[in-house]
Structures are given as C-alpha cells and as structure tokens.
Amino acid sequence: MKFKFGMLAAALALGTAAQAQTKWDLPAAYPATNFHSVNLATFASDVAKATDGKLAITVHPGASLFKAPEIKRAVQGGQAQAGEILLAAYQNEWQMFGADGLPFLATGYDDAMKLYKAQKPILEKKLGEQGMQLLYTVPWPPQGIYSKKAVTSAADLKGSKWRAYSPATSRIAELVGAQPVTVQAAELSQALATGAVEANMTSGATGVDSKLYEHLKFYYDVQAWLPKNAVIVNKRAFDALDKATQDAVLKAAADAETRGWAASQKVNTDTLAVLKANGMAVEPPSATLKADMMKVGDTMLKEWLEKAGPEGQAMLDGYKK
User: Fold this and answer.
1) pLDDT of residue 242 exceeding 70
2) Does residue 233 share a domain with residue 201?
3) Which residue of 17, 18, 73, 160 sits 20 to 30 Å from the alpha carbon of 119, by its own alpha carbon?
4) Which domain of life is it from (predicted)?
5) Residue 125 shares a structural domain with residue 181
6) How confident is the model at residue 6 (pLDDT cuts 50, 70, 90)?
7) Inter-residue contact 110 to 165 (CB < 8 Å)
C-alpha cells in the first residue's frame, strides 16, 4: 500500500507540474537561420531558463504556423500567444505602423533608434487598444535596390516587375514606374526563379536568405530605411502570467532588443560581403539614382503626413528634436 501511495503521490506531483507549465506559440515569417529568428530562439530559451521551464515558448519560423500577413491577427485573436511582425506591412491599417518604412527618413542605426524612441509610446498605446503588448523591436539592415540590370537612375526601373512587401514598397514602385508584385519573404526565391520579380528593395540579410545573387546581378546600397520587426504578445496571455514570470519575459525581451540591434549591424556588414563573394556587384548608388530616390522619399513623406495627421506630425517633430 505504501508503494502504491508513493506512486500515486508521484503521479499527482507530475500532473501538477504539467499543469503549471504554460505553453506559448510564437509564429515568425523568416527562415530559422535568419538573425531575427535566431534572436527569437535565444529569447525563448532565456525565458525558459529564467522561469525554470514554467513558461515554454515555441518559435515557429519560416511562416510555418501562420503566413506573414496573418500573424498580427492571430496574436490579437489569441490563436497565438505571441508573434513577430514587420511593422511597415500594417501601414494601411494605421499610418504610424509605417513610419520606419518611409524612404530616407532614418537611414542609419542611430537615426533608426531615434525614430523608434519617438514612435514607441504611440505604438505601445495602439497595440494596447488592440489587446496586445509590445515586447521588443529589432531593425532590418538598411534597404538597398536589387536588380537584374544596371540601374543608374530611377528611369532604369521603369516597367520592371518590382517585389512589394508593404504599402510603402508598392508606392515606390508606382513612383518610379515599376510594376508592384506583392511577394512575402518566404516566396521570394520562387518568384525570382519564375521571373515574377526582376527588382526589389530589401536588405542584405534577405538577399542572402533568398540567395538573390542566383537571379539578380546588381545591388545598390542606397540605405533607404531600416524597417523594424516587432515581437508582440496577446495582453490576456501576458496578464495571465504571475508577476515573476512577467518580469522574466520583459527582462528577456529587453536583452533580445539590445542583442538584436547589435546583430543587425553585424549582419549588414557580413551579408553584403556574402553577396559580393557570390558574384553580385555591390555598389553605391550613382548621384542621379540617389537624387531620384530622395525625391521619391520626399513625396512619400508628404503623402504619409497627410494621412497620419497631427499624430504623425507630432511623432516626426519628436524624432527631429
């Protein structure tokens, strides 16, 4: 009887431990090898260690659980407890989401951080109203122009099939006379292989992830903007955690943000070297191309401010202080 009682007690203890563990799903859109995904995996590991396994976060990279455009809605609706989204992709929903996708507003890491600080309070407020909470953000490296053919001015992009992944990248295509084709990161390689895409603006990191050097010949390092990925959490899921677990999540998120921003800078240097090593011409833009793209940026900022209104102007003023 004593043995049976001991077995029962052990089983009950195991059951209690199992019940005590909280499991979260965290969908992401980029390959497991991408620096954002690697950072997410470290974040999840840090949370597990800090909570002694009480909170287990499973990262689902490569759009394997939800496609990129579905992730925000999944987190908002509680289908996933957390997720990683590209903020600029949601500009049509709320203009402020697209502030870091405006060409030539913030072109380097210092300016990108200044912009983030100006954007963060209103971003947190909006996500809160939508039942979510911001955990951290990490920028992509500066965006450049990839093309099959040499580009010395915006006129050289006219008529080309241009990969768009956000409202801003679609608008750039319109302004330079290209044909925007909406393609998410997970489908970019296939789109290039079939000729559906001939040019696009993205980072060196995506260029390496999607092996753009296998299909495109030129990369122009125009450093147009640094769009941010944001890791968000469903507010109910976060509020359901005890205080110690919440604190562990926030600490791991703060560490992930610091680590991610540093990783982005290193990735920028490393991936441009990989593009070169694989035969891609990596060049600065010509003076004409730079001037043409700056005009595009000026037009888009004006249009953005008209839609964003006083809220957008206040954020812009805060950034320019």
Assistant:
1) yes
2) no
3) 73
4) Bacteria
5) no
6) low
7) no
From the centroid of its chain, how far is CA 3? 55
What average pLDDT score do residues 178-187 get? 92
Domain extent, residue 121, equals 21-92+106-139+227-272
Q: Are 280 and 217 in contact (CB under 8 A)?
A: yes
Look at the alpha carbons of 152, 142, 210, 177 in this order and tell me if their dihedral is positive or negative: negative
Domain count, the chain: 2
d(Cα 81, Cα 24) in Å, to the nearest integer? 5
Tokens of 197: 């895409």
Of the listed ranges 115-119, 186-190, 234-238, 268-272, the one predicted with least confidence? 186-190
Only one residue has tokens 């507003």, namely 105
Residue 182, domain member (yes or no): yes
DSSP letter at 20?
A: H
176: in domain? yes
Pair (199, 284) in one structural domain: yes
Residue at 320: amino acid letter: K
Residue 296 to residue 201: CA distance in whole angstroms: 13
The total number of residues shown for the chain amounts to: 321
Q: Express the helix, strand and coil content of the chain in percent, nearest 5 each.
A: 55, 15, 25
* Whether residue 241 is found in the same domain as residue 258: yes
Is the pLDDT score of 16 beyond 50? no
Three-state SS at 264: helix
Query: Would you say residue 71 lies in a domain?
Result: yes
Confidence band, pLDDT 50/70/90 cuts, at residue 1: very low
Looking at residue 18, its pLDDT comes to: 46
183 within some domain: yes
pTM listed for this prediction: 0.88
Residue 7 has pLDDT above 70, yes or no: no
Q: 205-222, pLDDT tens digit by residue?
A: 999 999 999 999 999 999
Residues 6+ apart with CB under 8 A from 273: none
Same domain, 66 and 211: no
